[in-house]
Amino acid sequence: DFLNFIPDSPQLEYTQECKTKNANVLGFCWTSSTEIVFITDQGMEFYQVLPEKRSLKLLKNQSINVNWYMYCPESSVILLSTTVLGNVLQPFYFKSGTMSKLSKFEIELPAAPKSSKLSLSERDIAMATIYGQLYVLYLRHHSRTSNSTGAEVVLYHLPREGSCKRTHILKLNRTGKFALNVVDNLVVVHHQDTETSVVFDIKLKGEFDGSTTIHQFVLPPRSIQPYQIPVAGPASVTSQSPVPCKLYSSSWIVFQPDIIISASEGYLWSLQVKLEPVVNLLLDKGKLMDFLLQRKECKMVILSVCSQMLSEPERGSLSVIATVFDKLNHEYKKYLEAEQSYTMVVEAGLSRSTPAPKRPVRTQAVVDQSDMYTHVLSVFTERKEAPHKFTIAVLMEYIRSLNQVQIAVQHYLYELVIKTLVQHNLFYMLHQFLQYHVLSDSKPLACLLLSLESIYPPAHQLSLDMLKRLSTANDEIVEVLLSKHQVLAALRFIRGIGGHDSISARKFLDAAKQAEDEMLFYTIFRFFEQRNQRLRGSPSFTPGEHCEEHVTFFKQVFGEQALMKPTTL
């Protein structure tokens, strides 16, 4: 029976019967807001609902003997159990009014069944999307290998095209009653007898036997966090303590991907995985990073792990720190490359027939230099609790890791290195880093070096050398020299590159006047008089140069007769 909920229209029921005679209806699935599939023990009927006409239109009919069915709304796939034993599964994919038959496959039962009756139960099968791929999960209560005890979960990868293959086996190492959920791309298996759950991550390295990867659980078994049921009733009664909920109850029903229903208590929960406690359960930092980088809400936990491994009492070795940095920067580089490819495609332009490319999604696994600087490295250097050699080694290790994957290092990381070296008076090391270009040239870095001149005089020349190497930085070199009142040095530099005919006289005269050195002012003033004579045939400044105050100052100090007289050829 169907009923339209359309404003201002009569709510009249309409009915659609199965086309197949004498069929038992097993259920129905809405594959879209206007498409529905009837599943019977004799097949499927795919209908389009026409609300305005209050009728249904048959789109496709499929005859097949069905024991039970399962639907995955996320991927719009219906799975049918067929044959006498029930272990041959036939998937169908639905999209925009079409029904596609995918390759059927057989579930390997633990042992040859003794009788020809249904051997594969619906409760032992689940369908879920893990890392963007659809899997059929089979809870096999007894392993097929004689030397292995305990149940296991077998994962069959179900692609849109091609055959379904067994790809992963999750070892539970126990027997009893189980239930499955999939949360944040993790397979969570609940065990009723021990009232614990175990977590599997199929992205992590397992034992490969040539066709299938065998996984052990990532974390030790843990119970779901207790839930308190508030006591309902009048205000005078509700002051009572909440009642703890019975976890792992026999009345629990699970739905994919993350739903748990307690039928006896009338509660529905969605299961979540908390990442913070994982940090203390996975002590191998490399494996921990592999695990965290695949999780949706991972960034702040990753940054917290990085801070911890640089601090007492959990300070890690440099090799461990390097491994963590490399894993982070590998993800960072992958995102940068994807972003670059996207930009190139967009800039190249596309024909109308080509679908527009999708911009890469920046997940929380992308921990960039700004994140590391703000939350980890700058805080680490400010604490000053570690030996300075270790501090510098950590900073250089992060820079090495960035260089290794060819990510341009931001100047603020180099500045952090320089400031740390200066704090500990390691000027010889600073000189070596600059001399051998361990720290890459940049304008902000050159300016920082200039500011260090008072405590380390050679920094001034190192800065100028750096600015000269940055061939686009001629203006900055002049500005820097003028700000240091090195007016003659600035003039010599600008003459050396042949730019002295176009520079601003006023800018140089301002700097010379601020230096409060009369002979310097005289020299600079005379230089520009000579330039004016050479370029315009007269030593006088034009009104557009706005040098009137400097001409007046020159007359006051040296007298009007000191002004250069025009010369004629």
From TrEMBL:
Database matches in Pfam families: RMC1_C, RMC1_N
PANTHER family for this protein: COLON CANCER-ASSOCIATED PROTEIN MIC1, REGULATOR OF MON1-CCZ1 COMPLEX
Species this protein is from: Eubucco bourcierii
CC per GO annotation: late endosome membrane; lysosomal membrane; Mon1-Ccz1 complex
Protein name: RMC1 protein
Mic1 domain boundaries: 295-543
Domain of life of the native organism: Eukaryota
Residues in Regulator of MON1-CCZ1 complex N-terminal domain copies: 1-56
GO biological process terms, semicolon-separated: regulation of autophagy
